[in-house]
Amino acid sequence: MSLVVSNLSVDHGAIRAISGVSFTVESGEIAAVIGSNGAGKTTLLRTLSGLKSASHGSAQWNNHDLFSVKPEFNVRHGIAHVGEGKSVIAELSVEENLHLGAIWRKNKKEMKSTQLDVIELFPILGERIKQRADTLSGGERQMLAIGRALMAKPQLLLLDEPSLGLAPLVIEQIFQTIKSLRDQMALTVVLVEQNALGALEIADTGIALNLGKVVVAGSAQSLLNDPAVRAAYLGY
Amino acid sequence: MYKFISSLLIGLSLGAIYSLMSISLVLVWRSTRVVNFAQAGQAIVSTYIAYEVVNRTGSFWLAFFVAILAGALLCAIVDRYFMRPLFKRVTSGPIVAIAPVVATLGLLGVLRAVVGFVWGVELKPIAAPVSLDGYSLGSEVLPFAPYNALVIVVVAVVLIALSLLFQKTNLGLSLRASAYSPEIARLSGIRVNEIRTLGWAIAGAAGAIAGILATPTSYLSPNSLDILLVFGFAAAVIGGLESMVGAVVGGLVLGLGVTFVSNYVSTSLIFPTAFVFLIVILLVRPSGIVSGKRSRRA
């Protein structure tokens, strides 16, 4: 059980956004993908979930080829993608956003029990269940976005910058939640982050991207101790 | 008082038909960002089919349901085999904004020509299922007839059904999610392309109902529903273009507005009134009367 990405290249028109990227994420681990703006982090996630097509290379989750189907079918193979920037539908209620995540299952009973699990994880969503998503705070929206993804009962969670634009205390809470998803639900997580320190602290492995290429990869601890990584991404 | 009540009732029944056409345009606009001018052509085709069914079987209601099916099917075909390939090929440059609109205008012309070729251009009647003679109030005869009442009831039933579909079912949630955020919908496992085509089919059905309901009080000709398209579009803009509730409010406001002006001022002012409404709304409240963040709720 693992996510294996090999020799992946992705183009935006004439520009190569991802170039020959390979890495492996073991099941039940968090992999932090760090890098500055334009490093190709978001493109990497969008390619893995199928929103963007790869020019070259492959990605396998267990025995499933991620590039063989459209994104709406990847979710049926246990792969959930939470897009950049609090990816919720503002016009829908909190409850409708959650239902959306499980809509392809067509099993109302299972959906209700999953919803209870998600609300246990994020009690604030239970309090706001009938409110429109655009009435939520930034942190609550991010929780809702993750909650929607969890409604699909995924095994592999692709998270794009969950800390973006949030207050430090809220960021800490989100990171702790991601950690507990791994520790308690055995989820495998690919966590794309500009907040490299926060991401590496909860991650098992770290991958630093620059201009679409892997510059350093290894255990999260080794990246935290690497002077070059510290200088480039952690700022100390 | 008599004149006021009769204007109110006639305005409601006219507005009800505008509402349906308006909903039809709004559903397509918010899911695809296309103003579907071809809707008048699609509705004319389904209404001519209804005319044939009435002629052969004598049953208005059978024709009514055949028209709904035909309208839905035609609209789904337009999306699947016309708009989707178009969007696939036209992907960048200023042409992206223009191409779909011009394409629907072209399709409107083609559908009208086909209808004219098959059925000729002379006016054809569809008999109303109930009387077109007005109710009497004392010695006066109101212009409001049982058929107008029937229109209001039928549209009310259709609106309730649509509202239940969109608010209470998984299909409705999929339709709304795909319209508001196709990407999040896809990531949630919704097959957005198929859902979009289904949304067009629902729009086509609403347009078909508007077409057949509008015809018994006038006549059918290849361009007899163009006016309905114009009023439906005005109603959609008045309602803010994004919401079905707005479409209904816009339709009723417009129906009542033109009826009161034509009864109290002059019948020749029907068209100008619609456009004055449209322009005033655009100047004063460009986002429509049912606007703001709430507008996309339903």
Concise overview:
The complex is a heterodimer of chains A (236) and B (298). Chain A is α/β, with parallel strands linked by helices and 236 residues long.
Description:
The complex is a heterodimer of chains A (236) and B (298). Chain A is of the alpha/beta class and 236 residues long. Chain A contains 10 helices and 10 strands. Chain A has a single domain, classed as 3-Layer(aba) Sandwich (Rossmann fold), CATH 3.40.50.300. In chain A, the strands form 2 sheets. Chain A has a 6-stranded mixed β-sheet, sandwiched between helices. In chain A, helix 3 packs parallel to helix 6. By secondary structure, chain B is an all-alpha fold. Chain B has a single domain, classed as ABC transporter involved in vitamin B12 uptake, BtuC, CATH 1.10.3470. Chain B is 73% helix and 1% strand. Chain B has helices spanning 2-32, 39-57, 60-89, 95-119, 146-168, 170-180, 182-187, 192-214, 226-238, 244-264, 270-284; strands at residues 136-137, 140-141. Chain B has a two-stranded antiparallel sheet. The relative contact order of chain B is 0.20. Chain A binds chain B through residues 49, 51, 70-73, 75-76, 80-83, 87-92, 96, 99-101, 103-104, 106, 132, 134, 148-149, 152, and chain B through 170, 173-174, 176-177, 180-181, 183-192, 293, 296-297.
Helix/strand layout:
The complex is a heterodimer of chains A (about 240) and B (about 300).
Chain A: E1 2-12, E2 15-26, E3 30-34, H1 41-49, E4 56-61, E5 64-65, H2 71-74, E6 79-82, H3 94-101, H4 108-121, H5 123-127, H6 138-150, E7 156-160, H7 168-185, E8 188-193, H8 196-202, E9 205-210, E10 213-219, H9 220-225, H10 227-234
Parallel strand pairs in A: 3-8, 3-9, 6-7, 7-8
Antiparallel strand pairs in A: 1-2, 1-4, 4-5, 9-10
Helix pairs in contact in A: 3-6
Chain B: H1 2-32, H2 39-57, H3 60-89, H4 95-119, E1 136-137, E2 140-141, H5 146-168, H6 170-180, H7 182-187, H8 192-214, H9 226-238, H10 244-264, H11 270-284
Antiparallel strand pairs in B: 1-2
